[in-house]
Amino acid sequence: MRLSRYFLPVLKETPSEAQIVSHRYMLRAGMIKQNAAGIYSWLPLGFRVLRKLENIVHEEQMRAGHIPMLMPTLQPADLWRESGRYDAYGPEMLRIRDRQDRDMLYGPTNEEMITDIFRSHVGSYKDLPMTLYHIQWKFRDEMRPRFGVMRGREFYMKDGYNFDLTKEDALHAYNRHLVSYLRTYERMGLQAIPMRADSGPIGGDDTHEFLVLADTGESEVFYDSAVTDLTFGDRKIDYDDHAQCAGVMEEFTNLYARTDETHDADLFAKVPAERQRTARGIEVGQIFYFGTKYSDAMGATVQGPDGKVVPVHMGSHGIGVSRLLGAIIEASHDDKGIIWPEGVTPFHCGIVNLKQGDAEADAACQALYDSLTALGLDPLYDDRNERAGGKFATMDLIGLPWRITVGPRGLKNGVVELTSRRTGISEELPPEEAVARVAQVYAGLHVRGI
Amino acid sequence: MRLSRYFLPVLKETPSEAQIVSHRYMLRAGMIKQNAAGIYSWLPLGFRVLRKLENIVHEEQMRAGHIPMLMPTLQPADLWRESGRYDAYGPEMLRIRDRQDRDMLYGPTNEEMITDIFRSHVGSYKDLPMTLYHIQWKFRDEMRPRFGVMRGREFYMKDGYNFDLTKEDALHAYNRHLVSYLRTYERMGLQAIPMRADSGPIGGDDTHEFLVLADTGESEVFYDSAVTDLTFGDRKIDYDDHAQCAGVMEEFTNLYARTDETHDADLFAKVPAERQRTARGIEVGQIFYFGTKYSDAMGATVQGPDGKVVPVHMGSHGIGVSRLLGAIIEASHDDKGIIWPEGVTPFHCGIVNLKQGDAEADAACQALYDSLTALGLDPLYDDRNERAGGKFATMDLIGLPWRITVGPRGLKNGVVELTSRRTGISEELPPEEAVARVAQVYAGLHVRGI
């Protein structure tokens, strides 16, 4: 993309309404614009990242054998009356009446609807195990929406639902989700720690939240520091292997890590003192096993191998896709702006032309642009007639991990400058080598763009 | 995908509520499920096609230089009060009151919101031309929703908006959209004819609708039969070239083609009698130029090269993405089921195992599956323990363009059967050749899946 043809409305001033750094930078970098309290437009740069996160979530869910589909944003109230949650849900549910005076709602979650779909079409244990998921806009009418996309009202979320014949199978689905989530967050450059959590209005006993450590997190968390040494890495997973998934679950949850909701001071005291940590965390996902709560209430049953009709065991599992942008920025920035992890960056590399209009500099930039594009990478070429300082400030603010700077002086010596946004370290090298270096960084990291 | 691990709830009976063939087949093929009047879930097979259409639209819009972003589904009423449309819109607008008693609405279209974004961030002619678009769920509270996704209430639509300094530039944007739409529909296997249309509540003088001819279309159309001989083909387009885009516009709109809304009997009479046609058509897109209607009302201005502040010239341009599924099926089916055009098929090829459990047949199917997958294709392997007749009926119903049938008898002779869904013609050939043939069909047609 050439910046002169893009829509990147960066702001010089810090918007006064933004209290946390991710909100400030998303506004300043022209990623979002507020349209109403807690309701945002995703401007082109923000949309690119959102779509990348969505694509990573799809890839990892499909890899785990989960089946993508899509449910609508609006739901009939009657479904929620069946489960008893229509009256229980409180004012955060946005209730709507249509022109025929039917009670509708903007879905905050989809347990009822997916259970209805399941009971309409599935009747035999032979169709199990089954996990269906979707990524869709949801609405929670927060009393005090704030922190930008971190606590918006209209938000984008992946929610998946498993249907299993037995509790054991459902707990495998739970573990499978945990494994796929660990992979997902790591691909996004995030360390998200599973912590035992409270089930809230979804119901159920087994539940873990995934928390990203950040000073601006909404939850207080208590953990054994050894938990932050764990990494998922590139281990090979057979998602059908119950023992392997249970092993990962065990490995990532046996150390103490809890939010304030479930914190147990006595248990925490048993963690070696030098490893006891208190911090704040941002919730970026949650998994639940809730047994037959919804299948009982809504009659979602299957005939088992013995001919007996039994309610299915279910769980639900969510990743807050839009809030992840905020979480990633909270975890990865400096005082100049965002620092995107390579796995989710909106553009792979910036190209800064120090002397736009200089024939040689223009040609060198264009050649870099073409080479990177031919390798399947998306460069952002700042081809505007602006001063170098302004171009650098914009690149730093929007946080592309790599920048190639091209100027007449370097070109005389046959070199351009390759700069890492994270370390700030620059290196002079021939253009072909700069391209090769950038390509090498992204090898194996490839995520679909829009 | 192995069918035994998929969720494909095909129906044997024809649902009584479905009046048109696309609605019937989408229900029978397990593509959609109605959740409320005019509100549907996209079951896994339907979602695959929806996502492919979405990806084609993105690819062609970006190719034309249009910039993707995303606006929210809910909008504040105040924006619509500025343009005067809040009161004018009528009961098809779904009006919502949030917990703070603020008037909101579920967006049926986005002229106001995009104009607000533009005026907040753009002030100079130097940032023009600019076309922003998004693909988002919209809502129209139809009195009588029907025909499945063809006239749903919650629907998925691409809407794009151009901002230009002059009327001439805006008309180029109009032509650019026409060109990109012709390409888009052809990639989807559709012939969509641009017809002079009526502007309706959006306003404006210049507008064309794109119509797909089908007996079940909602509009009566009148056209010169020569218009159906035009094809876009693989011509190279420079979307910055005003003359080239105007040439395509001229070529595709100078023959008589109008809907009943704009039909002119006297003009039609001048078409040679043997080329006069009357038919029905399904609207799958529309482009508008409406000048400064919204920029005047909402103060969207730029400073021109002469320093004078002028309102921008705008247009809006839409493709009904979810309704396209219905239109494609209406245009491409037979009495056994859907026939997907190769460009949009949910899976590229079916594999039918005639004797599941037979070691040789199972191994041959798995090898085909692996070969196709390694080539980047998505096969659907019917590995269920079902009779051949049932497997064929399912494949015919869901409409994959190619099917490979594997049975012990053929394998003895070293062959499998490759069948075209469209022609019904089968050929026996070695498995490697069947794979090569399928790969050849899809070469150059590659569209991203989910």
TrEMBL record, chains A, B:
Catalysed reaction equations from the record: tRNA(Pro) + L-proline + ATP = L-prolyl-tRNA(Pro) + AMP + diphosphate
Pfam families listed in its UniProt record: HGTP_anticodon, tRNA-synt_2b
A GO biological process held by the record: prolyl-tRNA aminoacylation
UniProt xrefs under PROSITE patterns: AA_TRNA_LIGASE_II
Subcellular location: Cytoplasm
Annotated organism of origin: Sulfitobacter albidus
Recorded family membership: Belongs to the class-II aminoacyl-tRNA synthetase family. ProS type 2 subfamily.
Superkingdom per UniProt: Bacteria
Function: Catalyzes the attachment of proline to tRNA(Pro) in a two-step reaction: proline is first activated by ATP to form Pro-AMP and then transferred to the acceptor end of tRNA(Pro).
Protein name according to UniProt: Proline--tRNA ligase
EC number: 6.1.1.15
UniProt domain Aminoacyl-transfer RNA synthetases class-II family profile: residue ranges: 38-341
GO molecular function annotations of the record: ATP binding; proline-tRNA ligase activity
Ranges in a coiled coil: none
UniProtKB keywords: Aminoacyl-tRNA synthetase, ATP-binding, Cytoplasm, Ligase, Nucleotide-binding, Protein biosynthesis
A GO cellular component entry from the record: cytosol
Oligomer and partners: Homodimer.
